[in-house]
């Protein structure tokens, strides 16, 4: 079960790194190649969205079927296990949210950078025509 969280963490990390490289100023020579790589990776990274929804349903199912642990009804070790389970669920929910937000930001930034490149090319053509 931990492997899927590792995969999601690596995907979110890769999205964050690509987003950082696209938005850092001064990488104009590297940017064209990075835009091409990012545009080609957006479709495979789209699989993160249904994967996140599946993991979110898994967290919800675990939350709904988790045994209730009131203060006096369980031992201290059971209470600690219950609290650890809640903390893991919250951490995993944050990872899901981060992966989805990074994908959306990467998609938006990539489309904006492509539009800027197209407008710059159009501006160059208009300057050359005059």
What can be said about this structure in brief?
This protein has 130 residues and is mainly alpha-helical. It has 4 helices and no strands.
General description of the model:
The protein has 130 residues and is an all-alpha fold. The protein is built from four helices and no strands. It has one domain. The longest helix has 54 residues. The chain is rod-shaped, with a radius of gyration of 22 Å. The relative contact order is 0.14. Its main location: endoplasmic reticulum. This is Endoplasmic reticulum transmembrane protein. It is found in: Endoplasmic reticulum membrane. Keywords: Endoplasmic reticulum, ER-Golgi transport, Membrane, Protein transport, Transmembrane, Transmembrane helix, Transport.
Provide the fold topology.
Blueprint: H1 2-23, H2 28-45, H3 48-65, H4 76-129
Helix pairs in contact: 1-2, 1-4, 2-4, 3-4
Keywords: Endoplasmic reticulum, ER-Golgi transport, Membrane, Protein transport, Transmembrane, Transmembrane helix, Transport
Membrane topology: Multi-pass membrane protein
Family: Belongs to the BCAP29/BCAP31 family.
What percent strand? under 5%
Stretches where pLDDT falls below 50 for ≥5 residues? none
| Count, helices | 4
Q: Evaluate the radius of gyration.
A: 22 Å
Secondary-structure-based class equals mainly alpha
Cα(first) to Cα(last) distance is 63 Å
